[in-house]
Amino acid sequence: MATSKKTKNASSTQEKKDNTQQQAKKTEDKAANLVKEDKKTPQSTAKNEKKSKKKSSEKGNKPNIFKRMVDFFKGVHHELKKVTWLTKDELLQRTGIVAGVVAIFTFLVWVVDSGLGGLAALLMNK
């Protein structure tokens, strides 16, 4: 029984090594193919850009300006329906918070400005 376990372990280890080697070979093949494709890509993209410029210059591709404007405003209306609007109480509360923060920072800037102005006046008099 002990020898059969050793044999099974050895065969499974050998299978794992074979699988690893096969995966490594596949990876190397993929890398080689990618390198070959990268060399071809700049030429093919230049050709594609020329074709796309010709197609975009055709007049029939874009709809009428008025149709595009209507589509734009329909999209805006659709998106505004998705917006979660604040209630009146929430709006007043958050507006109060913003006004309070602005008032605090205004006071702090006034204090620093007055202090630096007084310091500058002392330095100028001497």
Give structural notes.
The chain has 126 residues and is mostly helical. It has two domains: 1-83, no CATH class; 85-126. It has helices at 2-57, 65-82, 88-125. It is extended, with a radius of gyration of 36 Å. The mean pLDDT is 80. Its main location: membrane.
Q: Give the N-to-C terminal Cα separation.
A: 103 Å
How large, in whole angstroms, is the Cα Rg? Answer: 36 Å
Q: Structural class of the secondary structure composition? A: mainly alpha
Question: How would the global form be characterised?
Answer: extended
Mean pLDDT: 80
Tell me the series of helices and strands, N- to C-terminal.
HHH
Query: What's the total count of β strands?
Result: 0
Sheet having the most strands? none
Beta-strand content estimate: under 5%
Helix content, binned percent: over 70%
Main attributes of the structure:
mainly alpha; 126 residues; 2 domains
Describe the secondary-structure layout:
Blueprint: H1 2-57, H2 65-82, H3 88-125
Main location: membrane
Organism: Acetobacterium fimetarium
Membrane topology: Single-pass membrane protein
Question: What is the structure about, briefly put?
Answer:
The protein has 126 residues and is mainly alpha-helical.
